[in-house]
Every structure is written in structure tokens, then in C-alpha cells.
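Renewal narrative, Specific Aim 1. Our central claim is that a sequence can be written position by position from structural information alone. The example that follows is taken directly from our test logs and has not been curated for this report. It begins with the C-alpha cells describing the chain, in the order in which they were read.
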């Protein structure tokens, strides 16, 4: 029988690493970026140390145009960090 109503653990120290920092830096400027594999062109979000398609480790950061279709989304109702539990308002449409 599946467990229902399990509350996720609180993230004590979330941080960016060398792979995800370019995404967060661009986000501060209001841009949505992905890693693009230099070998096969696969776009990765979230960033990873190697391409899951060709296993290459060379990437460039590519800005996305801000257009597309949302096929699915989730709403996290439990704050993973209580100090970040305030409501946020987005001034522009964000696509992930």
C-alpha cells in the first residue's frame, strides 16, 4: 500500500554548484537558460556534468526564447525552507 501525505524533508542548505550556477545567475537577470551539449546539441535542464545522450562533458549556456507550451506542472505546498515560504509574484510568463 502506498504511503500518502508524506511531507518532504526540509532542505537545510540549498546551493548552486558549478553546473547549475550559470542558470541561477541568468535567472537573476530574468533570463531562462539551459546547458547545450557541444557534441550533439542536446539541451539539459537541470544542468548535469555529462550529456545523457552522448556522454560528452562540453557545454555552452543557451538562452531560451521564452515561448512554448506547458504540458505539466506541480505546485509545492510545503515550503522546503521555511524562511522562503512567502508568496512570490511573477511579472512575466515563465516556461520550464
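The sequence written for that structure reads:
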Amino acid at each position: 500500500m502506498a504511503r500518502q501525505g508524506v511531507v518532504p524533508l526540509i532542505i537545510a542548505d540549498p546551493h548552486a554548484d558549478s553546473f547549475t550556477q550559470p542558470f541561477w545567475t541568468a535567472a537573476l537577470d530574468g533570463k531562462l537558460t539551459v546547458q547545450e551539449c557541444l557534441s550533439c546539441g542536446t539541451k539539459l535542464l537541470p544542468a548535469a556534468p555529462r550529456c545523457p545522450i552522448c556522454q560528452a562533458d562540453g557545454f555552452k549556456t543557451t538562452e531560451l526564447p521564452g515561448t512554448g507550451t506547458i504540458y505539466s506542472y506541480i505546485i509545492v505546498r510545503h515550503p522546503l525552507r521555511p524562511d522562503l515560504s512567502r508568496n512570490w509574484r511573477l511579472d512575466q510568463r515563465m516556461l520550464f
